[in-house]
Amino acid sequence: MGYNNVNPEVLVKSTKTQHFCLSTIVALLAVAQVNAGQIQDAIDAAEPGDVVLIDAGTYYESVVLKEGISLLGAGADSTVIDGSGSEVVVTGAKNAMIVGFTIQNGLVGVHTKINATHVFECHIRQTEKYAIQFNGGFGVIGNNLIEGGGQGFGIHAENANPYVFNNVIAGYSTGFLTRGPHKPTSIQNVYAGNRSAGILVSANAAMDIQESEFFANRLNIMGHDLDESDILLTQAPSITVPDSDTTIEEYRDRIAEIMGSVFSEYPVVVYTLGDVTGDFGMAALHAKASFRVKASAADTEIVSYGAFDLVTQDELNAEYLNADEHPAISVSNPEVTESECDRFALDTLFRHSPSYYFTEEGFLVFNRLTSYTRIEVVVPQGFIPVSSDHETIYEWQDDQVVAKITDIGKTTVNLVMAPIEETSLE
Q: What integer pLDDT is reported at residue 409 of this predicted model?
């Protein structure tokens, strides 16, 4: 991997009290600076919530984002991350954001897997396979120029539902390809000069397409119909990074608003904690009648299980299996074609002592790895939460507390509970 001769000025700044936008970089560089030879050094030094400012220059490296940080360049026309032919130029991370870069010269420009990575005001080009690739997860992709050289895909969403707005996606084999059960959103994007299709919605997939513009694609949309809000352009669009004066704080507000809407349609898992430590219920609620649930710990015992249609009360077919040496339940009902949020339920009783136990001090602890986005924990009667490793909403339901968490990607839920007479809910 090569390195440029520029020794960039890199600023890491907490956003708890101050927020940044591209137009304020010059003023901010007067604040205490950290001299780092590579972007990755600055990322590694940052903490969740920090904004990492990168000065203009060309950086010959591949970078891995860090959870909760915002990587801010001096603008796509002057700040370049060149992957030097690497497999992935920018690897995403949970709740990370990248703004104001040219990202180029790799098999994949930005890759994100089972998390939420957001991309704004970037120029992504010279990628052989994918400009932006989602393998599961979510992201808000806005105000970018995604420019190909006649091959590959602009955006590829595999079992993911990114929210994509106000981008120019031009010059690929296919501009936007979606596969799998999730439903991405495309709003006010321009698809131009894509050799096979502007948008390809594969079989059994779906996409919400609104107010999109099309020019000189072989096919504008495959697997989906144009509607009255879509526009067929009569002259070539401007192939530039769309103008935006949006601040980091405004982007974060937009992300939070979109996530609140999108995640309400994600499957939910409800853990019910009873009187016997080690045993806990797990109910998984899905929109479709076919899905699979795999225990996160290989030594988990599935004591009992059953699947149901909560609307008709019909029992569904469910089968125990071993998936990668982990106990799992497959709910398979292809004849049921209806789809409705939280309609189809798998109810299981798990037994796993390390996930639910008493401490020597008399606290109850629930500690469990999950890949669900909407997570609820029903606290046993007589106990109340005193700490959680996530931002958590607590609600009283009858005489029990329910802890509600929203988190994208694999995450460990750690909830500590105390006898109700000894504490109060904070």
A: 79
Chain segment 286-343, per-residue pLDDT in tens: 988 999 999 999 999 999 999 999 999 999 999 999 888 999 999 999 999 888 889 9
**410, pLDDT greater than 90:** no
9-263 and 268-422, same CATH topology: no
How many Å apart are CA 119 and CA 141, to the nearest integer? 5
CATH topology of domain 9-263: Pectate Lyase C-like (2.160.20)
Cβ proximity of 11 and 52 under 8 Å: yes
| 3 state SS for the chain | CCCCCCCCEEEEEECCCCCCCHHHHHHHCCCCCEECCCHHHHHHHCCCCEEEEECCEEEECCEECCCCCEEECCCCCCEEEEEEEEEEEEECCCCEEEECCEEEEEEEEEEEECCEEEEECCEEEEEEEEEEEEECCECEEECCEEECCCCCEEEEEECCCCEEECCEEECCCEEEEEECCCCCEEECCEEECCCCEEEEECCCCCCEEECCEEECCCCCEECCCCCCCCEECCCCCCCCCCCCCCCHHHHHHHHHHHHHHHHCCCCEEEEEECCCCCEEEEEEEECCCCEEEECCCCCCEEEEEEEEECCCCCEECEEEEEECCEEEEEECCCCCCCCCCCCEEEEEEEECHHHEEECCCCCEEEEEEECCCEEEEECCCCEEEEEECCCCEEEEECCEEEEEEECCCCEEEEEEEEEHHHCCCC
The Cα 143–Cα 123 span in angstroms is 9
Per-residue pLDDT averaged across 202-229, rounded?
Answer: 91
Report pLDDT for 20.
30
Beta strand pairing status for 79-91 and 102-113? parallel
Topology of domain 268-422 in CATH is Immunoglobulin-like (2.60.40)
**Alpha carbon distance, N-terminus to C-terminus of the chain:** 50
- Locate the domains of the chain by residue range: 9-263, 268-422
Cα 196 to Cα 173: distance, rounded to the nearest angstrom: 5
312: number of CA atoms within 13 Å, CB side?
12
pLDDT of residue 263: 85
Task: Please compute, for residue 190, the number of CA atoms within 13 A of its CA located in the half-sphere on the CB side.
Answer: 23
- As a whole number of angstroms, the distance between CA 420 and CA 140 comes to 41
Report the alpha-carbon distance of residue 350 to residue 363 in Å, rounded: 21
